[in-house]
User: Fold ATP-dependent DNA ligase family profile domain-containing protein from Coccolithus braarudii.
Amino acid sequence: REVLDAALQEAVADECEGLMCKAVDGEGARYAPGKRALSWLKLKADYLQGVGDSLDLVPVGAYLGEGKRVGSYGAYLMSSYDVATKRWQPICKLGSGFSDAQLVEYTAAMAATVDVLSLDTGSGGGGGGGEAEEEAEEATVGLASAPPPPWLELPEGGLPPKYLPNVWLQPSVVWEVRAASLSLSPIFMAGAGAA
Assistant:
């Protein structure tokens, strides 16, 4: 274990994401594209306590789960508060590190914080608008159709469609979010100008 810890610390110091650990010989030593095997293990810096960074962030949007996450929110739009503008600024989309039970629990807990304006389906639900309306509706199905809440500051031009949440959430809880590293985002504006 000590040798592995030292190797991971060295990899992190060299700005690597982590280590791949595998069998040296035998059937498990060969890489099989697209297949997971217990003989190949990923060891990342954020798997260790005391390595990486953590931030206190607030969920302000939620994305409906897909696949095994259907029926709950599968990811959240996280934000930090900008004291200068007195508004919340998105910082990242968070969808990993949750157990299935946590996702169900958080979905239930967030129900009371859904911004009711984001549930407005606008004019897209009326039907009868022809093929163009149907194509436009398909392109944005499930996205928050209301404009962002006034307490949320988005980059000029808004968020790209793949980052628009299905619902906006009133800021109400603070989560400690761990990350292997932090970097400035070309999409999210929180931290812009901080060098």
